Amino acid sequence: MFRNPLTIGVDIGHHSIKAVVLRQKKSGLELVAFAEVVLPAPVLNKQHSVNAPALLSAMRKLKKALPYGARQAVLALPDSAVISKVVQLDSHLTEDESLFAVEQAISASSPFPVEELRLDFSPMTRETFGEQSQTHPVQVYATRKETVDSRVAVMRQARLEPTVMELQTHVLVWLEQYLAEQQGIEGDWGIVDIGHTITAIGIKAPAGTVYRREVSFGGEAMEQIDNTFSGSGDSTARAEQFTKLLADNLKRQIQLYRTTYPRSALEGVWLSGDGQNLILEEMLARMLSLSVRKIHPLSGFQRSAKLDIDWEEEVYGQYAVAAGLAIRGASA
C-alpha cells in the first residue's frame, strides 16, 4: 500500500538541523528515528535562502543517523518568508484563468516580480460564502523561488526527495491537532513555539485556516535577564521574569484572536521549542487566564523496539517542527 512508508520531517534551524522519521502503520504512526546536528555557523541568511555547501555538509551528517530506506522529506518555510493573502475569485473561472487572477493579485502586493515567485493557492471552505455565490475566497501563498529551490536542491544532493513544503506555523498546528486527538483533549487550543529570537503562535481557526502570528521575543531574552541578575543564583526569579515577558508578548496576540473569532473560545496553549523549558507553566496560565501545557512532540507516537530500549523521559521540545513535518508528510 505504501511505496515508501518512511517520512522524514527536516527542520532547518539557525543553530541546528533536526529530523524526525515516522512510519505509517495500520495502528498509527511509529517513531523510527530522530536526530540533530548542531551547526558550527548559521546556514540561513536574512533573505531566508540557505548556504548550500554548509547545509549539504550538515545534511550528510544527519542522514547517517537516519534509516537507510528513508527518502521522502518534508520541509518548512519560516512564516516571514511567505506572503499570505486571501483573494476573491469568480466562481466560474477555469484553472488557467484562476492562476492568472492569482498572479495579478499577488503582483500588486509583492515586493518581488511574480516571475520570481512560487505560488500555491486553494479555495477556502464554502461555509464562509455559500454554495451559490458568484465569487469565492482563495487562500494564496507566495515565496521567492530561491527560498524554495535552494532547499530542494540541497535535499536532492543529499539523496532525499522533498515532497511537501509547508509553513512552519502550519506544521506546529498539525502537531498540536495530532497530540490533542491522541490525548483526547477537546476545545480550541493554540501552540506557542519559543525559538531563540522569534516566538510563533498558531491556532486552528474555525474556517479551517490557521491564525498565525510571530513576535520578536525568544530564548535570547534570558541572556539579558542573566545580566540583570549579575550572577545571582536565583533561577526561579529568572524564570519568573522570562515568563512575565512572554506573557506580555502573548496577551495582545491572544486578544487579537479573540476579537477576530469571538465565537471560538480559546481553551489553552501548548508550549514548544527550546524556550519552553524556561517557562513557569502555572504562572503563565494565571497571567493569560488559559490552560498551559508543555508539548512533548515525540510522545504521541508508537516507538520502534530499538528506540524503546534507549528511550529517556525527556521533553525533546526542540523536535516540535520536525515532528509536525513528519506528521504532515505521513498524512499527505
UniProtKB/TrEMBL annotation:
Designated name of the protein: Type IV pilus assembly protein PilM
Upper lineage: Bacteria, Pseudomonadati, Pseudomonadota, Gammaproteobacteria, Vibrionales
Source species of the chain: Photobacterium pectinilyticum
Highest taxon of the lineage: Bacteria
Coiled-coil regions listed in the entry: none
Pfam families referenced in this protein's UniProt entry, alphabetically: PilM_2
Entry-linked SUPFAM superfamilies: Actin-like ATPase domain
